[in-house]
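In the current project phase, the collection of sequences with tokenised folds has grown. One resulting record follows, to show the layout:
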Amino acid sequence: MAALALLTRPVRRGARPFGLLRRAGARLLPAAIGRAAELDRRLAAAGRPGGLGGRDLLAAKAGGALAGAAVGLFTGALLPGRLAVLAAVAAPVAGFLTPDAWLARRRDDHVAGVRRDMPALLDLLAVAVAAGRSLPEALAEVGRRSRAPLARRWGGIAAQVAVGVALADALETHRREARMPELDAFAGALARAVRHGAPLAETLAAQAREVRLARRRAVQEQAARAGPKMQLVVALLLVPAVMLLVAAALVGALADGGAGALSAF
């Protein structure tokens, strides 16, 4: 939108093209940097699939828009009237938004995986702490023993602490990047336990119980929502199909009976 406003703004007399380009760049560059930072935060919340960064995804969005524009122009040349205009406008927009849809899907998959793996990883972390390891050492041990994305995140926390980052700061960074209620509660509980000297094993066991209960409630709610959907499928598809079979059988029976009556006559 900012680029469109700059392009449609009337050019003053005597304005130098290079000056206009410089001012356009001065306005668009901060917007692009801010957008790349937001995409980077979203990628971090999705587990950073493929090791991509915000600039990579922004470049993919720009490339998708260009590819969509080419497809829209080619398709528009084959379509009549307003359909050509619609194709020329819709294709670049679809190409620009396709990486966002992909990222949203990866975010949903990542959240589901974290919620599935978190109780077992919390149990493993509690065992490591109960065995006498410090919290950073226990996090590093879980990161070594598991290939789950959450375990890799915890291993990253231990690596930050090993190079001098405060544990509270590393946990806060982990919480901001993940942007999940379960991990918010996990980071907060660990920070409070470290600050007040509470037993870590008990805190982790309580966290594991809460995550399991939350996952059980989510499964129950999903099952409750699936019931009406199944009833709708039955009402719209199976019942008409059965009625058609019954009607076909009745029509066949009536046709056979009519043919028999005519032959008898």
